[in-house]
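Support reply, case 0932

Customer input (verbatim):
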Amino acid sequence: MTGTAQALPTPPGQPGSECAIRLVDAEKVEAVRSRMPAESDVTDLAVIFGLLSDPGRVRILIALLEGEMCVCDLAATTGLSESGVSHALRLLRGPRVVQVRRAGRMAYYSLADSHVRMLLDLGLTHVGHAGQDRLAMVSNN
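Our regenerated output:
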């Protein structure tokens, strides 16, 4: 542990209350707090992760990794209804996860920027590694 540690009592019934003394590394806590993003940024990030909690919306975003698509094509690709896709896209447009380009009466959707692409790519890579880890655990037993 680095820095100065303070002994703080833990209230009964709280996690960690089985310890007689709780040590807090005050320097580390302050260093981390000083680098914490603004509350509005944390809230915005939580909204984006919340949007990614729906498998249908994730399928739409994965389809958009291939380039821009209209609602009809996204519905056919993902197996969702056109109204379901439209609703999901409306939700994804708010926090700038997807963007729309209009050509006459047609609307074409795409990922908003390279950061969204990176987020999806990293998530898919992570899921692939987690899947490989599960397979390795099963084959070792």
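We compared this against your earlier run and they match. Two observations from our side: The chain has a mean pLDDT of 87. DSSP finds six helices and four strands in the chain. Please reopen the case if you see a mismatch on your end.
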